[in-house]
Amino acid sequence: MKTNLEIMLNLPMVFKFMSWLTKNNFLEIYKIAHNNAADLLREAELLYNHKHFPRAYALAFTALEEISKSQFAADVFTGLHTSEDFEKFYRNHKHKIDRMAWAHDDANSYPHDLRLVGPDIDDLERINPSEPDFKKRSDALYIGVDFNNKKIIKPNEQITEKDAKEIMRIVEVALERIWEVSGEFGGNQIGTKGFMK
Questions:
Q1: Where are the domains of the chain?
Q2: Could you say which DSSP state residue 118 is in?
Q3: Torsion angles phi and psi, residue 119, rounded to 5
Q4: pLDDT digits over 10-59, tens only?
Q5: What is the pTM of this model?
Q6: What 3-state class would DSSP assign to 145?
Q7: How far is CA 170 from CA 22, 101, 125, 153, 191, in A?
Q8: Comparing C-alpha atoms, which of 193, 197, 196, 191 is closest to residue 70?
Q9: Is the link from the previous residue into 119 a cis peptide, with omega within 30 of 0?
């Protein structure tokens, strides 16, 4: 509901939500969301190593959303987007994952589709991840009910080891690419300008 001031000034409700966020707040959102994504990936790896594949998938998917949020906040900080754009984006899970299509594409291209699995440099595994799927994220967390076939489906019957490994690889590649662009190896810039065209 709009306040009387918003009605008198004909301001959108967005103004109330975003008015307190400064440019530096967006830099802080960028840093915290990025670090949270890295933490979520580490926790997904722990779950994966203990064969809890559905929950590993869910955490890795959430890490992708956090990376997307961090990059969008960086784009507000650098002036590529506005705080109003951020509010619309912030509440839209589908849009967060859609903005991560670049990470899925990169994870399916050389050399990012290869992962070192052994002590020798030639011990490589090729991973061609499937696209992140919001339905799979839900399936990873909740039981399913198939009314047509009269069956109750557990998360571990819907999400496989392969599903978890693939989405975790997408997160790894996303973090690697961001580091290449914004870290010591790259041009010391934040946001999507460096790798999203």
A1: 22-194
A2: S
A3: -70, -25
A4: 544 444 455 678 888 999 999 999 999 999 999 999 999 999 999 999 99
A5: 0.82
A6: strand
A7: 31, 10, 14, 26, 18
A8: 191
A9: no
